[in-house]
């Protein structure tokens, strides 16, 4: 379904939503089920929809619209913005597209890559000010 690579690891999502990681140094595959909330609700199995990787981190989009960074830290997206529809990562930053068309960024902004006219690092997703009120349909890093 999807394969993405970082400098140190390869991540795969299978067609049935399983998540796998391959570490180049150890040459080992690891099923990420233990690191991700794939069965938070009894009888409901959440699936990984997409991986996005930067140099310093990886993030996954689940089929319920939530995003987690590895290892398994939920990103706080304000509920009024809706669930996450797409995810992308740059070198040290992430980009989210919500189901309502808003674009949010987080991470390191040393070169202004968060899109908010400053170089302030943001530990959690914040809306890109220049795109406020515009319904976006696609993102990329």
TrEMBL record:
InterPro entries: RCC1/BLIP-II (IPR009091), Reg_chr_condens (IPR000408), Ub_ligase/GEF_domain (IPR051210). This is Uncharacterized protein. Pfam families: RCC1_2. Keywords: Repeat. PROSITE patterns: RCC1_2, RCC1_3. It comes from the Eukaryota. It comes from Lygus hesperus (Western plant bug). RCC repeats lie at residues 101-141.
